[in-house]
């Protein structure tokens, strides 16, 4: 469990560039959680061929809670040695809460709302109690403590009320408090630096997990189909799109992310900004995975305009987050990202009455054009060093 006194140490600089086996084990919970979120979203988009805000918003709230649980743990293990016994206990307690939350996701806003909320609150507060008991070198900032404790009230009250709209309002309030506390509190831990390279690597790993989940969703959709040519074409289109998302993410800015955090004038503020950008990108990929499923199971289906939220909105959300990452790393945004967002917007009226496979092909073409433009610009050029503004 580690030598005596090790629990008093912050994460050693020698381990900044790698995730421990415990952290990789921790991620397995969120592989399952992302799958549950994707399945719930697919149900939102396909049940009755209608999508109302009241149907999709609860899934988004559940996703935000899972993301906060993951990213707050990553920040913790980017400061405190995860191989110390308090670090291991904190990670395992979070894993236990994450597993229960993931199991409850399918009905996490309905019949299992109390299970979901109680698991989340227990995971968040138990870490603070452990921190108070063992008194490690890193203590949670006051804004973060307050947001967690105060936010627990609307979580539990929201789970107990019967009105789903009121539950959504209360849970949205709780998340706003916690996200605000996270952003304000991250930069207020004196003397304990964030391991920037480690944090960047963990965010990259979670992005890859999200791409893997998109592959799983697409493969399952093809497996459940009759393997007809249109379905196979939809799967091929989904696979190409996933590869393009990977390529666009890692081209320059994604690869230079670790240096961008460590070279920032305020690494803590840069970490908050980068985590927010990854939230957008990961949400975009999760949404795009729903679009991939629609391309496969309904390649020539009757056009449903609300499906454009997934087929075009997913890639658009990813590009928006990717543009922010570029701004945070290089203090600029490539024209190809902005052109891609503009083109996806133009595709909305153009594909309003088009079947999913046609719309998905149009979205993939936009992503391919961005990747080709990136490759063309990279010819004979030296790697650009990070130049963060923060």
TrEMBL record:
The UniProt keyword set, sorted, is: Membrane, Transmembrane, Transmembrane helix
Q: Which organism is it from?
A: Micromonospora sicca
Q: What protein is this chain from?
A: Low temperature requirement protein A
Note whether Membrane occurs among the keywords: yes
Transmembrane domains' residue ranges:
21-39, 59-77, 89-107, 142-161, 167-186, 229-250, 271-292, 307-325, 337-354
- InterPro entries xrefs: Low_temperature_requirement_A
